[in-house]
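User: Could you go from structure to sequence for me? I need the amino acid at each position, not a summary. Structure tokens:
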């Protein structure tokens, strides 16, 4: 970390560069009104083998870009009711997506590399790129998406073109743009297993010769998104916890001249669920017995209602406890949703992309992004618990968090006829991330309310502000007509400031502090940490050699590096040792130890890949394959100690991931029949000392420490892949019959990074299929769609269940959704 003078100097540089980037973007907007016209190059879209991707921040065909990319078309998304990120896993080898559970709201892993879902403080190792704007928060994993033109998954470090949160890859979603002629479409579906319906539609076309518009919206209402175990106390009249989603988008495309274009997207998403914990079940460990909820300070035990069956698709999350009706005034959940678990998110996203051709060879591009996300939720983070009188005995905890993010990127790109071309650019990001929590955890205060009538142990206000600046440059040299050398470098500087305060502590905790004396057990009421600062900078180089043997055969080899900034854990608990973070309190050694427990270092990656991209059989067959080897230093990991009820934030020493990926697609000689598939082999292991504190002590240096060096990384199946078919069978000039199927295989993998005996998810196979009948031009279509037809349930993550008794071994296992069966009607004209 930098000292104070270095931080001041960095802050001055960031401020100056920020105004430069924003000012240039504003000037570009103004210049677009009066810019002279120049001719634009167009991609020949007549060849249906061409897939356009944006893996290097410019449009290239999938076959010519020297990056491992798996691309999923809008047609495939529609055929299989893909409405959220987790629905994509059956098409991407070594992709793992977990939704819900806690903290950040989800996580994405690629090739065994990902960031914990527990803490919202962590950026994702797999960047979420939405219409050209990189978004670090994993809350968006919970959001629905629709009216999507294409999804691209880029594997391996992508820091040169996508920045600091792409150390393991990029998940890119591109929404549909206005059409050149007026059209409208819609669809409605009903799902039988979860008892939900979805309706949506769009209208798109030109308002004038220079302005196009597209308006789209979708609403989803699911009755049994999470279905409860029999006998689980709930405020709901049935055993299902529902989910409602609304998402709407307006897109404007403006082309006032041949050399200037602007594209504005405004997106709003409202997500309301009756549970945050979602599909989180309880594995009862080796003893097969459901452990009580144990409150160590009070000695209270609450019986678990878990059945130990984690394959039945039923979940033991109680709610409705009266304590939820006594929430500290002015804090999360006060006055609303009394006695009910809930999860509500409102997200506004805006993006303005502009391109100005300065001349025949230079284009100036600007991408401005705004994200405003607010989330509030309450749930029982013991996951189980029934009191003797039949009331829920879970431990209620309401949370609220928000994210305001502003980004600005500028790029200058050349398109010379000669051997040399370049791209240079700058990027600025500002984020504000407040988090408020109220927790009933340590003493069972729902049984013994505070003298002020408040049923919570403590209230915490946590806030993190960060600012990042980076500059990047890349160049390509055509050594010969067939051989291209390209490369570049990105410099990044990021600064973060975190503050935590505890305005309320239960009377009993204050009383215990007085009995213990000295430093006590917890911080005093009203304690504030003051600013906790983190800053770091990084240089990420990349170089690629590409050889185009023929127009349809490309070979490439690349060396890549990645970077993901460190920071301050925002899951800080009010333990007494936290007081040492304040200057002047305790010794220097105590202060440093306190800071080390909540500050995590930046994550870096380096390595390379070699690949081939081929079009064969007169372009009817596409085969793309790559070999990769990457080493990740200081992988950011957060585990949870269920006995001590605290988060453990650490950096894993080193993870090495190696293997290969292949995808293929064949337009067969049979009319309308297309076959496709993917296969991936991943060998991801800890390859240096990684001390994972585990057990009742869970403190560095204790006998419970475990070195995971040599163990496989979590969520990294050795083998995975899919095979799919799409068959459109003409019945007449106005009728077409469709058959579609997909089978996905995943090998076994560890679900967490704690011990050598962690929960292991066995290998599994899922099947999807659809049958449809409709007009060949898509004017109407009726479909029957089945997702996960065999109702396979698998674990994405696993970790200690909170409030374990001595010797307890229950684990919280976050899972996927079960089988879904849809009937759908769609139209377009």
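Assistant: Here is the amino acid at each position, in order:
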């Amino acid at each position: 970390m930098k000292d104070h003078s270095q931080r001041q100097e960095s802050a001055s540089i960031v401020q100056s560069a920020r105004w430069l980037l924003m000012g240039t973007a504003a000037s570009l907007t103004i210049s677009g009104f009066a810019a002279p016209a120049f001719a634009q190059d167009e991609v020949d879209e007549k060849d249906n083998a061409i897939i356009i991707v944006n893996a290097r921040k410019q449009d290239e065909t999938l076959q010519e870009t020297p990056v491992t990319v798996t691309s999923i078309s809008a047609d495939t998304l529609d055929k299989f009711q893909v409405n959220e990120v987790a629905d994509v896993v059956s098409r991407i080898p070594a992709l793992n997506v977990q939704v819900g559970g806690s903290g950040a709201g989800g996580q994405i892993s690629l090739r065994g590399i990902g960031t914990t879902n527990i803490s919202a403080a962590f950026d994702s190792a797999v960047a979420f790129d939405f219409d050209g704007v990189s978004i670090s928060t994993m809350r968006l994993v919970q959001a629905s998406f629709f009216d999507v033109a294409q999804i691209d998954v880029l594997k391996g470090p992508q820091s040169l073109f996508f920045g600091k949160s792409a150390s393991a890859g990029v998940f890119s979603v591109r929404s549909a743009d206005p059409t050149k002629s007026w059209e409208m479409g819609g669809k409605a579906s009903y799902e039988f297993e979860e008892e939900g319906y979805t309706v949506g539609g769009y209208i798109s076309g030109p308002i004038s010769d220079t302005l196009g518009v597209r308006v789209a919206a979708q609403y989803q209402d699911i009755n049994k998104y999470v279905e409860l175990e029999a006998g689980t106390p709930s405020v709901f009249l049935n055993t299902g916890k529902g989910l409602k989603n609304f998402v709407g988008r307006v897109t404007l495309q403006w082309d006032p001249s041949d050399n200037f274009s602007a594209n504005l997207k405004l997106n709003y998403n409202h997500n309301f669920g009756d549970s945050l914990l979602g599909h989180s079940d309880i594995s009862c460990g080796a003893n097969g017995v459901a452990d009580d909820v144990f409150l160590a300070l009070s000695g209270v035990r609450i019986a678990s209602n878990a059945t130990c069956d984690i394959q039945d698709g039923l979940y033991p999350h109680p709610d409705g406890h009266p304590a939820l009706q006594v929430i500290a005034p002015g804090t999360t959940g006060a006055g609303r949703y009394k006695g009910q678990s809930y999860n509500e998110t409102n997200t506004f996203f805006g993006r303005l992309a502009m391109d100005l051709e300065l001349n025949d060879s230079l284009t100036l591009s600007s991408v401005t992004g705004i994200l405003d996300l607010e989330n509030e939720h309450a749930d029982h983070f013991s996951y189980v618990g029934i009191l003797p009188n039949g009331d829920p005995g879970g431990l209620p905890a309401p949370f609220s968090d928000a994210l305001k993010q502003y980004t600005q990127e500028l790029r200058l790109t050349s398109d010379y006829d000669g051997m040399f071309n370049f791209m240079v650019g700058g990027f600025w990001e500002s984020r504000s991330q407040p988090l408020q929590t109220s927790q009933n955890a340590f003493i069972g205060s729902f049984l013994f309310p505070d003298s002020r009538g408040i049923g919570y142990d403590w209230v915490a206000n946590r806030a993190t502000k960060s600012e990042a600046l980076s500059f990047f440059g890349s160049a390509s040299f055509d050594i010969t007509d067939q051989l291209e050398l390209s490369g570049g470098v990105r410099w990044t500087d990021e600064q973060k400031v975190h503050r935590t305060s505890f305005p309320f502590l239960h009377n009993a905790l204050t009383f215990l502090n007085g009995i213990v004396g000295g430093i006590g057990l917890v911080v005093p009421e009203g304690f504030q940490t003051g600013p906790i600062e983190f800053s770091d900078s990084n240089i990420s180089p990349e170089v690629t050699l590409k050889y185009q043997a023929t127009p349809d055969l490309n070979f490439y080899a690349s060396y890549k590096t990645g970077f993901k900034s460190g920071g301050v854990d925002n899951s800080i608990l009010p333990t007494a040792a936290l007081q040492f973070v304040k200057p002047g309190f305790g010794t220097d050694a105590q202060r440093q130890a306190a800071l080390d427990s909540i500050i995590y270092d930046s994550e870096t990656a380096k390595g390379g890949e070699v690949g081939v991209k081929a079009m064969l059989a007169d372009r009817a067959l596409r085969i793309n394959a790559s070999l990769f080897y990457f080493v990740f230093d200081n992988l950011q990991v957060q585990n949870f100690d269920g006995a001590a009820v605290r988060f453990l934030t650490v950096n894993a020493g080193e993870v090495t991931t190696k293997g290969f990926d292949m995808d293929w697609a064949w337009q067969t000689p049979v009319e309308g029949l297309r076959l496709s598939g993917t296969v991936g082999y991943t060998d991801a292991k800890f390859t240096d000392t990684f001390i994972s504190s585990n057990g009742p002590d869970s403190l560095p240096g204790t006998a419970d420490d475990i070195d995971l060096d040599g163990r496989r990384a979590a969520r990294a199946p050795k083998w995975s892949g899919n095979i799919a078919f799409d068959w459109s069978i003409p019945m007449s000039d106005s009728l077409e019959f469709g058959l579609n199927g997909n089978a996905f295989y995943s090998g076994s993998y560890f679900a967490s990074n704690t011990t050598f005996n962690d929960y292991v998810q066995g290998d599994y196979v899922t099947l999807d299929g659809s049958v449809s009948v409709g007009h060949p031009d898509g004017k109407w279509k009726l479909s029957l769609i089945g997702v996960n037809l065999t109702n396979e349930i698998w674990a994405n993550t696993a970790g200690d269940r909170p409030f374990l008794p001595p010797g307890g071994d229950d684990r919280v296992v976050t899972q996927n959704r079960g089988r879904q069966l849809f009937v759908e009607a769609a139209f377009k004209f």
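One structural detail worth keeping in mind: The chain has one domain: 4-40+49-828.
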